[in-house]
Amino acid sequence: MLKVATIGMGKAGGEVAELAKKAYSIDGVAINTSIDDMTTVTNIHQISVGDDKGAGKDRNIAKQFVYQKAKEMLALPELKELIENHEVIFNISSTDGGSGSGMAPVLTDVLKRLYPEKRFILVGILPTLKESVAGQQNTIEYMKEIRNFDSTYMLYDNNTRANLTRSEMFQDVNREIVLDMAIIRGDFQYATPYTNIDERDMFKIIETPGRLVIAKVFGFKEKDIDDKSVEDRLIESLRSSTHAELDRDQIIKRLGIITNLSEKVYKTFDTNVSKFKELVGEPLEGFEHIYINKTEEETNRVIAIMSGLSVPDDRIEKILQRIDEVTAQLTKTKESSVLDNANTDLIDMLRGTGTSATTKDENNDLSDLDSIFGQYIKK
């Protein structure tokens, strides 16, 4: 098993790091500019930067806070020991906020330079398309930044669960993120006399620059494959996951397949996954980990780890369309209003409205009041 840890940045990142500790005992720290956002983070170390008042959804403010405290923060024992004692560190944040979105790319870049022997994986959570245009803009800026340096990154998408309540949406996405961390750690790779994915193989997969995506199907029974094949289930799981949609260019560098199957199910499953590759593309290099369950009671699982994928331009295009739509709405002006033709002369006549005289204040220059009030008082 690999030694993995988390650095959760901002509210979303801190919550994922907290869940990773609770669910899978994955060590982590939380970094935030808001002290209020860290009140629910109790099982991992907390690091505060800035004035504890947050970044106000402004990525630049978060970057400035990190820049001002970078040397001091990077020297903290809780952060140094976390990185030094682990091989793979997941840097997690939302892409649409201020604190996490602003900190994660630049801090990942700094850490990669400071610890070149470590593997840092950037984990971003995209907003729903209903979120504010400012959040969509922050996401575009985040994506531009991570494209410009040689890094492995994972992208999850709240929009895949936009039909749920917000709390359910966050829970679904966060659970899948921490499960994927456990998969990369090696939680589902058992000692086997067959082909296996060892630590060096996994390092090759996760060190591949570009996007990393995991598809997995758990818990089906032998009788279930009569209705739907294992490979079809794997394809369906990818399409229904909380990972952001794949780009359609079918660029993929490495693919690892991990199987925990009963002998009967394994005989129906082709680990070459040709149908799955029709969807994701043909990798340059492939790896397999084959484990045959000893009893029928053991859970059937198939996991596909894909790396070196492209920036998801199709998903980003939807964000840009959302920005254009909202911008057009916000900048639209009315050429006329019903108030332009509203006639209240009858009401004025019935009320007996007259003209009031104004007096001049000798201590202040009120010469403009006539023209100002003239817009409101009927003559």
Stated plainly, the CATH topology of the largest domain is called Rossmann fold
Number of helices: 13
- Structural class label: alpha/beta
Q: Radius of gyration, rounded?
A: 28 Å
Main-sheet strand order equals 3-2-1-4-5-6-7-10-8-9
The number of domains: 3
Q: Helicity level, as a percent range?
A: 25-40%
The profile of the biggest β sheet is: 10 strands, mixed
Runs in which pLDDT lies below 50 for 5 or more consecutive residues are 355-361
What would the average pLDDT be, to the nearest integer?
88
> Mind telling me the CATH class of the largest domain?
Alpha Beta
Estimate the global geometry from the Cα principal axes.
globular
By CATH, the architecture of the largest domain is named: 3-Layer(aba) Sandwich
Q: What string, H for helix and E for strand, traces the elements in order?
A: EHEEHHEHEHEHHEHEHHEEHHH
CATH superfamily of the largest domain: Tubulin/FtsZ, GTPase domain
3D structure, described in words:
The chain is globular, with a radius of gyration of 28 Å. The protein has helices spanning 10-24, 59-74, 77-84, 99-114, 133-147, 166-185, 199-206, 230-239, 263-266, 274-280, 313-331, 345-351, 369-373; strands at residues 4-9, 27-32, 45-48, 88-94, 119-126, 152-157, 210-220, 254-261, 285-292, 300-309. The model is unreliable at 355-361 (pLDDT under 50). It has a 10-stranded mixed β-sheet, with helices on both faces. It is 40% helix and 20% strand. Helix 1 (10-24) crosses helix 6 and helix 5 runs antiparallel to helix 11 (313-331). The chain has 3 domains: 1-187, Rossmann fold (3-Layer(aba) Sandwich), CATH 3.40.50.1440; 194-335, 60s Ribosomal Protein L30, Chain: A (2-Layer Sandwich), CATH 3.30.1330; 338-373, no CATH class. It contains 13 helices and 10 strands.
